[in-house]
Each structure stands twice: as C-alpha cells, then as structure tokens.
Amino acid sequence: MTNVLGIDGGGTKTVAVLMNQTGQLLGAGDGGPSNYQSAGIETARYSLEWAILQATQNNKEPVKAICLGLAGVGRPEDLSVVRNLLEEVIHNTPSVPWSLQPNTVVICSDSAIALTGGVGHSAGIVAIAGTGSIVFGQNSQGLTKRSGGWGYLLGDEGGGYNIAIRGLQAALRAYDGRGLPTILVEEFQQELQIDSLEDLVKLVYRSGWKVKEIAALTPIVDRAAAKGDAVANTIIDGAVEELALATRAVSSALFSSQEKFEIVTMGGIWHGESHLRDRFETKIKAIAPLAQVIWPRHQPASGAALLAFAALGQYPQL
Predict the structure, then answer these.
(1) Given Cys at both, which of 65, 146, 228, 282 links 308, Cβ 3.0 to 4.6 Å?
(2) pLDDT on residue 140
(3) Residues 6+ apart with CB under 8 A from 95
(4) pLDDT-flagged residues of the chain (< 70)
(5) pTM of the entire structure?
(6) Which residues does residue 18 pair with via DSSP β-bridges, in sequence order?
(7) What is the Rg, in whole angstroms, of the alpha carbon atoms belonging to the chain?
(8) Angstrom distance (rounded) from CA 22 to CA 275
(9) How confident is the model over 125-146, as pLDDT tens digits?
(10) Alpha-carbon distance 27 to 193, whole Å?
(11) Residue 88 CB-density burial (10 A; 0-12 exposed, 13-18 middle, 19+ buried)
C-alpha cells in the first residue's frame, strides 16, 4: 500500500493528512504556523513536525511521497529553504517510516493545493478571498497563472482587509460630512462598543491593530450591505468587481472561451449575508459562460496529498 503526506501550511496553522492510494484518509494532524517568512524557521519546523507526527501516529507503512503547499513559497530561494527545513523535520521524526526520493518531494504554493483539493484535480481556477485575496489557475497543459495576492499594502482587493478598511473609511467620511450617509457609522459603533467613531483612533492606532484585527470587521460591512445600505453595497460590489477582474485575467490566460472549467471559491468572504458570491457568479457568466463556480470538494491538505501521488505517477479518486 502506498501512503503519502499532504501538508497545508499557512500563517496561522498547519494541517497534515496521511492518505493511501485508494484515497482513504488514514490520519490527520494540525499544528501552528509554518510560513517560515512570518513565523520563523524554528516555529515552522516545530509546526510541521507536530502536525506530521499526529497524522502518522498509527501508521507503519512507508511514506513514499510528500507535498508541502506552503504560504509564502513563490521564489526559487524559497524552495531551497523549505527543502532544508524538510530535511530537519525528517531527521527529528524518526518514528515516521520515511521512504522519500528527491522526485517524490513536492513543494508548491498554498494556492496550488487549494485548487487541486477544491476541484479534485489540478486543472481549473481557485478564487481565494479571506483576509487577503488571490486567484490561481492551471490548465490541462500544466500552464499556471496567478492574479492578486500582493498583500494588504499593494493589493488584495476583494479580501477581508480591503473590504473592512474601505468600510471604516466610508463611515469616517460620513461622520465628517465628506461622504454619503451610511448605517456603517452606527454599525461600527455598536459592534465595537464605542460612543463615537473618534474612538477609532485609540482602537486602531494606539492599540496597535494590525491586518487581522481590521479584517475581522468585514462582517459589519457585509451585514450593512445585506440590510440595503447603499454605501456598503458599493463596497461589496467593488470587491466583486476586483475578484472577477482577477479571475478574468487568469481564465483568459489559460482557457479558451469554448472550454469548460471550474472555479472553486475558498475563504470566509464567500459566506457572507450580502450574496457576494452570487454577484460574483453573475459576473463570471458574462466573462466565461462555460465556467462553473463551485464550492470546494476537498480541503487543501487533501489537494496536497493528490499532488504527492501525482509525483509517484498515481492519481487516486477522492
């Protein structure tokens, strides 16, 4: 029996799954962050070791391939760092029956495993909208294309931070009399339990709010849009437009207008009350009439396992 490990490593947590060639899940584990650029090498190594040990604790069969889909892996130098990191992980986990070859170690971006897990194979598009946003695709010829994912300072339009910061700015403009009236003023005050929007200065600047704290305010904008607030709806429409633009950039580079393919939506932004996903699907129908927008079929870690099997020349069905 052939067993492989799939790893989904991000900035907040790491998920590992052990799978056999029939697609059966044999074990799973999770750990802390494994984005070495943000968490550091030592933290990333510990997170990977812990997740892998949990996933393999009842396994005696050789682990013949591994795929690490990691956030922050996009440059050639990243691959070298992660390979060295994996060597340390293997050395520190002698209880795992490792049986790897250089060609059965796959290192790729978290977007690649999200796509493979989401659609169940490697051809299609994944539109990820969480705190940030990125659209990634691959066609049947193996060509890839990404759009977005530049971080909150340079891009990430359509992601939670972008929606939330635009909502805060719109509320402050209304409060000042520089912008259109919006219920976002009252919604932010109520949710944050502040008497005035002027208290935002203390919260955001003096309390040292960062990206995640601001992105956590996205549901306020989403709910205001669902209630019919025109300003909030303009923000949601802007997010939809940006996500559709990124998807069009990817789809036009990889697929012809006559091809059928799937677009899997992943991330918390797609689950809001304002029907953002429905609006996105309407935009997509105009861009790529034969494309189908779907929810994820499997988790990204399972996508990593499928890519590990592909390195062995095997393609199990999940």
Answers:
(1) 65
(2) 92
(3) 53, 56
(4) none
(5) 0.90
(6) 5, 27
(7) 21
(8) 37
(9) 999 999 889 999 999 999 999 9
(10) 43
(11) middle
